[in-house]
Design goal:
Number of strands: 0
Order of helices and strands: HHH
Distance between the termini: 62 Å
Strand content: under 5%
């Protein structure tokens, strides 16, 4: 019995999108909301586009929250 030449299996497109969504989510909200959503969808085997959308949504939410904080503090960052 011979071992495969590569130890790491290649990802199908849906898995790539799931991983991307998870990474975007982790970056977006410091491993909280978006990362949890993207990670949960990836772990559940959900469609990759949904995981990617969750990551993008988390990124947008981060910018909206940052703007709200900036406005509510009188423009001070």
């Amino acid at each position: 019995m011979s071992l495969p030449s590569r130890c790491t299996p290649s990802l199908v497109p849906g898995q790539r999108a799931s991983v991307l969504g998870t990474i975007i989510g982790f970056i977006a909200l410091g491993r909280f909301s978006g990362g949890v959503i993207g990670g949960a969808l990836y772990a559940a085997g959900g469609p990759g586009i949904i995981a990617a959308a969750a990551g993008v949504t988390a990124l947008i939410a981060m910018f909206v929250l940052a703007r709200w904080v900036r406005v509510s503090t009188g423009g001070k960052e």
